[in-house]
Amino acid sequence: MLRLTELKLPLDHPPAALRPALCARLGIADDELVDFHIVKRSHDARKKSAIVLIYQIDVALRDEAAVAARLAGDRHVVPAPDMDYHFVARAPAGLSERPVIIGMGPCGLMAGLVLAQMGFRPILLERGKAVRERTKDTWGLWRKHQLDPESNVQFGEGGAGTFSDGKLYSQIKDPRFLGRKVMTEFVKAGAPEEILYLSKPHIGTFRLVKMVENMRATIRELGGEIRFGARVERLLTEHRQVTGVELAGGERIASRHVVLAIGHSARDTFEMLHAEGVYVEAKPFAIGFRIEHPQTLIDKARFGPNAGNELLGAADYKLVHHCANGRAAYSFCMCPGGQVVAATSEPGRVVTNGMSQYSRAERNANSALVVNVKPEDFPADYRQNPLAGIDFQRHWESQAFIAGGSSYDAPAQRVGDFLAGRPSTALGSVEPSYQPGVHLTDLAQCAPAFVIDALREAIPAFDRQIKGFAMADALLTGVETRTSSPIRIKRGDDYQSINTRGLYPAGEGAGYAGGILSAGVDGIKVAEALALAMLER
Which of 48, 90, 158, 488 has the largest count of CB atoms under 10 Å? Predict the structure, then answer.
């Protein structure tokens, strides 16, 4: 097949217009086009009154060689690459050892699925509950101010991505098309087929729940074992070689190959690993607040007269501003037509995140507005501690809990008041979506001064890109601290810890991913490395 890129058609083109446009672009008659399928569809909205759709399409032709030769100098017509996934190993019959995977977020699930598909019968350990039980516990915090520290937005089957927008795009380099493998498995598990070609695909929370359940069933059908409520208390080692894990109840599971896919919020596990001598280092992260606007404002600013078009959907944005204090302030995890959610995993702390359903039909758009934090920002006596970032996050989460009324309500402030440096006393036209509720206050007490200064400079700058972004009634809710892991569990080219053989740090918690897709891709890479290592023994 040949791949045709940069095929542009008007936003309002009928589906039937695609085939003749392909023929015209390739200079062929209709009967020479045997078949075609869309690989990617994006849009160019720089001219709001004339938005165009941009296609990448794989085509099967009656005489492919002749067309390829005639268009040899055209960089937008190339041989279609092989995007199918090819397994790197197959478990031999009678293999007794089983790999252990700690964590069932997107990284752990994909690692477990690929290992199961290769016949290695992995054991998956999840400290939280199955996804539907976990959903009930999460609603317990959102509706009743009741937190379960082991079953919440951060902990449980599906990981933190389950209660998010379900975004499935990433900027990672992916020469082997492992992202396609992730997407294909998601579609098999119930995700909409459009995620295979949309430039910014998403699934939404409710669809993610069923999809995660189906992936779990597939792993079990292939010989894998899944255990919930199985928190790993200790990593067992001999001479810096992993020999197994010990669960909170004292049970030990033997394995010389353990995948660590624990997510960015398993702080007690980070502390345990550090105490066991696993090499851990501090890494930068970011903190800030969630900002909410009417979704209609964002749609109009991005799409102009085409706002509301079904193909475009709810508009998103990605913003960055380099501040006078040397910091970068930027939008993160933007959720069109979604809501701000309570995402803490520890008592006495408030954490925010964003979530959308597949329809993205809620009244508000929300995004994190965050500022970069460096290890040098920690107190001097903590800087040599690789876990200092955890204490830094906890401090501001505790401050947010107090500022919110010590009830898991979140502190909030109108943008106009935030920019003016005065506490908010009343809401404006933007109604908060955060559950269980918000407490109006002054957010300057909920983040470091360098974050407050940077955001006060950045929000007016963003208003020049999105008219109305700095509207006085827009709402800020705090505090967003879990943008990424504050540590990296360093690994070598073999994907094993640099000082603990048999331990495979993976995904977002280990500092090697950022989001559902990149975490899933990392899970595949780690599964492949582990499988090859098991066959070497």
Answer: 158
Task: For 94-106, write each residue's pLDDT tens digit.
Answer: 899 999 999 999 9
Query: 108 φ, ψ to 5°?
Result: -65, -40
Predicted confidence at residue 403, as pLDDT, reads 98
265's CB contacts (< 8 A; 6+ apart) are 154, 155, 160, 345, 482, 509
Rg from Cα positions in the chain? 24
The answer to whether the beta carbons of residues 233 and 247 sit under 8 Å apart is: yes
Helices 516-536 and 178-188 pack at an angle, to 10 degrees, of 100
Closest CA to 289 of 476, 483, 461, 482: 476
What are the C-alpha distances in Å from 163 to residues 106, 108, 133? 12, 17, 14
Q: What is the mean pLDDT of the chain?
A: 95
What would the two tokens of residue 51 be?
């938005």
Q: How far is CA 214 from CA 162, 174, 266, 404, in A?
A: 14, 26, 25, 38
| CA separation for the pair 9, 43 (Å, rounded) | 10
Q: State the CB neighbour count (10 A cutoff) for residue 75.
A: 8
- What's the pLDDT tens digit per position in 468-479? 999 999 999 999
Q: Of 484, 186, 504, 150, which Cα lies nearest the Cα of 346?
A: 150
CA distance 508 to 29: 49
Using CA atoms, how far apart are residues 38 and 33, in angstroms rounded to an integer? 14
